[in-house]
Structures are given as structure tokens and as C-alpha cells.
Write a structure and sequence with these properties.
Creatine Amidinohydrolase, Chain A, domain 1; 3 domains; 28 strands; six-stranded mixed beta sheet; alpha+beta
Length: about 600
């Protein structure tokens, strides 16, 4: 599972594959086809067999879309990928457009014409997204037409990789903290309270959490691809490829879970005739809604019933993630020591940095996988928010530059995600000033106290206000949820400018990652994970408050800190964090690293 540095696509993908797609479109009488990034399970990170957007365009980011018409085409990305898409996509084939501002609906409204038929695959679109696309096409007088099989899959043909079939294995109670039967009982009671007799689950993370299993179908995430139908009485039908079913799995699932194959799913949906069935329009594709409607079921639109319970970690999961972060912090500290010593006199290239960090994590003996491909951006590459080193793009760090390392690991007891930005040689005054502004945002979000009912969007500005005061900002969210040996990106909570209706609750793990990016020069990001906790009572306070406990333990480069820009409160907070890093990580690293850590964690 080691990280590789080969590129899975190149700029020739568009010129080579778009004509094949257009031919398949013509065979089906289509004037266009909509290509979402999402697959049949609305995954963010995709198995190679489902990475249709990458095959069609060459773009490998985790969010995007494309529209291929007979005589023109466009690819859509958000602000995280504006630099990456230019590098990966042939602009002679694809116009590059913004995914957020107008996006695909606006393009369909202006680029399609009356009487045209634009194809879509109902298994790849959520019903809400599809409704927006249909409304936009209607304004242009064109029509969205469901097609099966879709022209892209037909064009891909025999060259398409096989579907993954990683073994599905039990996830023991010592890590999950709650029996699957108890979880299913809770979910069933919540369904009954909402007037539903059953729920259809298609999100791999929900299936993994509910049944206390893990798999390996999704890159860098221990997720099994499958479907489930959960009844209000707590019984369930679980649909898995038989090739994934391990010998111990049936007994682990128990008598109240009926193990079936994906081929049985259409009939299982038909069996729900006359019942009220909960389906999440953000997690399940339009195909499920259409199948249930055709079967005569009453579809109740609502959030995946596992979403919120999964996000609020129990005591066992929180204890596990604390252990995982201490273990991971020791590995990361060994890497940061190497970078601060050998890396200063003989600066590494990005690939060397990635492989060295991965080796330290492997030496823990507990590493199951990375939680995502490590981002190691030297100098200007650090300004590409979701950059991944490749042999072609690999860059040597230079004296007087910055290196940004965003990485994480999967352990049985927890998932980590941490970013540190390190000076190679002496940083410029501008680098240090802007690093300190980012640090101020990270510290503000770590120490905030807030009443129950507060959403992440209400806290987002805390991480930005120091940057805003200098006319600066960053174009990504400040925080995403993180799973417990699950996906490194987990909802429903987040911290961002975008409005959120989900309040932060005790047990939720969320990242704290403000940044600053100067295109072509350097990138800065400081990321720690933190868990929502009940805060200590405030003398004279009238309401109970929540706060955050910082989970990530690794030193922050003090050479980049302009202490005069920090308040007394911020200096004390920064020193207290480093004192904790030294106390918890120091005993776990070799003597030479421990001596360096004592200096690196000294008070500012």
C-alpha cells in the first residue's frame, strides 16, 4: 500500500478518450453526456474502476465534473484545484470552468440547444443534483435522458479496471466500542420515530460503522463497497460481492443480518412495496429513488441515519484516537527531526520526504495504510492545495524556501491527518509573518468556547480574522470531520464559510487547518485534529459550553513564528501545546530526537 509517484493520467486522456465517448454518444442518439466525479456510492476517493472523470479528462482531483457535447466540452473544478486542472487537462479539448459559481447547471443552460438529448447515468447522480441539471436543461429546451449502460463506460470497454474485491473483515469491539446489534437497534428506533419501516444505506462508511466491519475497496480508506437495507426492528440485509466475504464474516454479522449479493438488490428493493423507506438524497443516487418508486414504496427523504451517530465518537473510539495520535505524533516527530537536521544541510526532494515519513510510520508496527497520499510541496508546489508529488513534478527543496507536508495514517484505533510547514534554511520576513497569521487562526480555533447548537460555519472566521486584517485569505474550508479508522473526510459537520445546519456535538472529530498560499512561491498550512468536548465551567457563566481537545501532537516550526505578532494569551497557549508535545512524545522517540524535541518545544 506504499505511496507511488507514477501518474495515472496525462494530458492525452482528453484528446484520446473524448472521441471514443462521442462515438458511443452518437450510437445512443445523444448530443452530450454529463460526467460527475462521484461513483455509484457517491464516494470522494474512488476505486480505479469508477474514476470516470479522470479517464475522460485526465483530471484526478477529488471533486469535479465534466460535460461532453458533440462539438465542445468543459471540465469543472473548485478553488482547490485551479492549478492542478491546468496541469492535467488539455485545454484544447476542455474549457475549464468553476464548479461552484454556476457549475454544470449554468453550462447546460447556455451550451445546450432546443431538442438536444443529454445523457446521464442515474446511478452516478444524487436526485437533488439531478433535479438542478434537469431544470437547467429545460431552460435551454434540451432534455436530460437516463442511459444504461452509459457511453463513457461503453467507450472505456475492456481497458476498464476490474471492480475491487478486498476482504470484508470484523472490526473488534475493543476499537468500535459498541456491538453492531446495539447500533442497529438504535438506528431502527430512529427510523420508527421518523415513521419509516426501513432505510436503504449505500455509503461505504455507514455500512462499515453499522456492521462493525472494515474493507479495502476505496483507496486509503478501510471501506467495503456494498449496500444494506436496515429495518425498524434492527434486522438487516447486507449486499456484498461474495468474493469479499471472509469465512468469519457470517458468524460475526449474526442471525439478524441476512448476507446477500448485489444481484439480489433489485428484488430486495421491490420487496419494500407498500413500506415507507428512508433514503438519503445526498448519499444515494437517483437510481434508488426511481427503483423504490417503481416498486410502490413510499420514499422518505432524509439524512443517512448512521451519519450523526457515526460522527459522535464513543468513549472507546476517542480513547483509541488519542492513542493513534500519540503513536503517529512520535513517527511525525522523528521525521521533523530529520528534516530539521539532515534536511537543512542536504535538502530532500518531495519524494524523499514522502518516503522517509512513510518509513517512520511503518516502523510503528501498527500502520494499516496512509489515510491519503502524502502532500509534500516544496516552494511553489506548496501553494497547490491538493498537490501530490510525482516523478514528473518532483521538486528539490531549496535553502530559503518552505516545505509543506500534509499527511495522515490509518490505524485500527484511529485515523490521523496533520499538516506542518517547515522552513528550509532561513525564511524570509514575509514567510514568517504570514505563517504567524495562520498560526494565530489555528490557536484561536483551538481555544474557542461555544454554546451547544453552534455550527462550524459560526466558528470559521476565527481562523481567518488575522489573515483578513492583512488583506489575505485561503480558498478551502477550515475543518472537515474525520472518521475512526474510516474515511479521513467525514460529515455531516464541518468548519467552513459555507452555511452548515449541523451543530458541533461532543465526540465529533474535526480538523483545524487554516492556510495561506502564494502562487508560484510557497504554501503555508497548520493542521491539527481536535475533538469536541464539554468545556470546564466558566466562573460567572450562565450557559454550559463546549470546546475542543487537541488530538494532534507534533512540534510547530518556531523559526517561522514572529512572537511580537502573538498576544500574551497566544504565547502561553502555544507554549502549553509544545510542553504537552514534549511530555507525551518525548519518551517515545530516540535520545537524539528527544534532545532536538526539547529545544523545538522550548517556550517562545
Amino acid at each position: 500500500m506504499r505511496q507511488t509517484f507514477d501518474e495515472s493520467t496525462d494530458r492525452s486522456f482528453g484528446p484520446t478518450h473524448v472521441p471514443l465517448i462521442r462515438k458511443a454518444m452518437a450510437d445512443q442518439g445523444l448530443d452530450g453526456f454529463v460526467v460527475p466525479h462521484e461513483d455509484e456510492h457517491q464516494n470522494e476517493y474512488l476505486p480505479a474502476a469508477n474514476d470516470r472523470l479522470a479517464w475522460a479528462t485526465g483530471f484526478t482531483g477529488s471533486a469535479g465534473a465534466a460535460v461532453i457535447l458533440k462539438d465542445r466540452a468543459a471540465v469543472f473544478v473548485d478553488g482547490r484545484y485551479t492549478l492542478q486542472v491546468r496541469d492535467q487537462v488539455d485545454q484544447g479539448v476542455f474549457e475549464i470552468r468553476d464548479l461552484v459559481e454556476g457549475g454544470v447547471p449554468a453550462y447546460l443552460e447556455t451550451a445546450t440547444a432546443r431538442g438536444q438529448a443529454i445523457g446521464y447515468d442515474p446511478r452516478l447522480h444524487s436526485p437533488d443534483a439531478l433535479a438542478h441539471l434537469k431544470a437547467a436543461a429545460a431552460k435551454a429546451g434540451s432534455e436530460l435522458r437516463a442511459v444504461t449502460p452509459n457511453p463513457l463506460d461503453q467507450a472505456w470497454g475492456q481497458a476498464r479496471p476490474s471492480q475491487p474485491a478486498a476482504p470484508v473483515v470484523p472490526h473488534p469491539l475493543e476499537y468500535s466500542g459498541e456491538e453492531s446489534g446495539a447500533k442497529r437497534q438504535r438506528i431502527g428506533e430512529s427510523l420508527a420515530a421518523r415513521g419509516a419501516q426501513a432505510a436503504v444505506l449505500t455509503a461505504p462508511a455507514s455500512i462499515a460503522w453499522l456492521f462493525n466491519v472494515r474493507g479495502g475497496d476505496v483507496i486509503r480508506s478501510p471501506l467495503p463497497i456494498g449496500q444494506a437495507i436496515v429495518a425498524a426492528d434492527g434486522t438487516a440485509r447486507l449486499f456484498l460481492d461474495p468474493a469479499k466475504v471472509t469465512p468469519e464474516l457470517p458468524a460475526w454479522l449474526g442471525n439478524q443480518v441476512r448476507l446477500e449479493t448485489p444481484d439480489d438488490l433489485p428484488q430486495a428493493l421491490a420487496d419494500l412495496k407498500g413500506k415507507t423507506v428512508l433514503v438519503d438524497p445526498a448519499q444515494s443516487s437517483a437510481w434508488y429513488f426511481e427503483a423504490l418508486g417503481s416498486a410502490g414504496a413510499t420514499v422518505l427523504r432524509g439524512d443517512d441515519p448512521c451519519l450523526l451517530p457515526r460522527a459522535c465518537k464513543n468513549a472507546v473510539e476517542i480513547a483509541g484516537t488519542r492513542r493513534a495520535h500519540v503513536r503517529d505524533g512520535a513517527a511525525l516527530t522523528r521525521f521533523l527531526h530529520w528534516l530539521a537536521t539532515e534536511g537543512q544541510t542536504n535538502p530532500p526532494d518531495e519524494i524523499q520526504a514522502v518516503t522517509r515519513l512513510e518509513a517512520f510510520r511503518e516502523q510503528t508496527g501498527a500502520l494499516k495504510d496512509l489515510s491519503f497520499d502524502t502532500i509534500a510541496g516544496a516552494a511553489g508546489n506548496g501553494a497547490i492545495v491538493h498537490y501530490r508529488p510525482t516523478v514528473r513534478l518532483n521538486r528539490q527543496a531549496q535553502i530559503g524556501s518552505l516545505m509543506l507536508i500534509d499527511s495522515g495514517a490509518q490505524y485500527l484505533d484511529g485515523t490521523t491527518d496533520v499538516t506542518r510547514t517547515v522552513a528550509i534554511g532561513e525564511p524570509t520576513a514575509e514567510m514568517a509573518e504570514r505563517f504567524t497569521l495562520v498560526l494565530k487562526g489555528n490557536l484561536a480555533l483551538a481555544r474557542v468556547r461555544f454554546p451547544a447548537g453552534t455550527t462550524g460555519s459560526a466558528l470559521d472566521s476565527l481562523a481567518r480574522v488575522a489573515l483578513w486584517a492583512h488583506g489575505l485569505d485561503y480558498d478551502h474550508g477550515t475543518g472537515h470531520g474525520v472518521g475512526s479508522y474510516l474515511g479521513v473526510h467525514e460529515g455531516p459537520h464541518r468548519i467552513s464559510k459555507s452555511a452548515s445546519m449541523v451543530a458541533l456535538r461532543p465526540g465529533m472529530i474535526v480538523s483545524n487547518e487554516p492556510g495561506y498560499y502564494k502562487e508560484g512561491a510557497y504554501g503555508i498550512r497548520i493542521e491539527t485534529l481536535q475533538v469536541v468536548t464539554e468545556a470546564a465551567p466558566i466562573p460567572g457563566g450562565e450557559r454550559p459550553m463546549l470546546g475542543f481537545e487537541t488530538l494532534t501532537l507534533a512540534p510547530i516550526d518556531r523559526r517561522l513564528v514572529v512572537t511580537s505578532l502573538l498576544s500574551d494569551e497566544e504565547r502561553a497557549q502555544f507554549d502549553a501545546y509544545h510542553a504537552r508535545v514534549l511530555a507525551e512524545i518525548g519518551p517515545l522517540v530516540p535520545a537524539e530526537t528527544r534532545a532536538w524535541l526539547a529545544e523545538a518545544c522550548g517556550p517562545v
